[in-house]
Design a protein that fits this description.
203 residues; mainly alpha; two-stranded antiparallel sheet; 2% strand; globular
Length: 203
């Protein structure tokens, strides 16, 4: 889901310190200080060395570009009677995400991205042009995946796994702060549950 860029970007002040350990991704662990000014910089030589993770993470991240993969899945579900209600639920979650996340929150907070603060970092993807908070990739992924999980656990679990991978890729690629992703996960889960409640309680 395409984001609307801020005309004036300012960092979001944060003084919370969080240790984020990603046990399912044993190749890398992070310790994050969530003060924007002191967010730890990566050594480009260490982290951008053309290794396996550098090759796979941009591909995983690209699955969430513009929410396209989730939009396609939604359309497919709408085509079949047995999954049409799933499609309504997931589609509503993406619409709510678009307005609350990309159109409203991003343009209110206008947070700088990590690579904009540590401008000596050499990104391995094209730099995003919109603001950092919340993470659109993460928000859309968890909104869709949670909505689908509420409808059907067998379909929802793989979607949650993919959502986690996309979210992690955004941290790995140094385009989001941990708070961007964490808040977006919470927003996405809440949006998915809300969408399920709206669709399934419609008279």
């Amino acid at each position: 889901l395409s984001a609307v860029s801020c005309s004036t970007v300012k960092p979001l002040a944060s003084t919370i310190t969080t240790d984020a350990a990603f046990s399912s991704f044993s190749l890398i662990s992070f310790t994050f200080t969530l003060n924007v000014a002191s967010f730890p910089a990566k050594s480009s030589e260490k982290y951008f060395s053309g290794n396996f993770m550098d090759n796979i993470m941009p591909k995983i991240s690209s699955l969430g570009n513009a929410g396209l993969i989730w939009i396609i899945f939604t359309i497919v579900m709408l085509l079949f009677k047995n999954t049409r209600k799933y499609g309504y639920t997931c589609g509503l979650s993406l619409i709510i995400m678009l307005f609350t996340g990309n159109i409203f929150i991003k343009n209110i907070v206008c947070r700088l991205r990590p690579f904009q603060i540590r401008d000596y970092i050499n990104l391995i993807i094209n730099p995003p042009l919109d603001s950092s908070y919340p993470s659109g990739h993460t928000y859309a992924s968890f909104a869709f995946a949670t909505a689908l999980l509420c409808c059907n656990k067998k379909l929802g679990i793989p979607a949650i796994i993919l959502a986690c991978m996309i979210s992690f890729s955004r941290l790995y690629l140094y385009v989001h702060f941990p708070t961007d992703v964490l808040a977006s996960i919470i927003l996405g889960i809440a949006t998915g549950i809300l969408s399920y409640y709206i669709v399934n309680n419609k008279k």
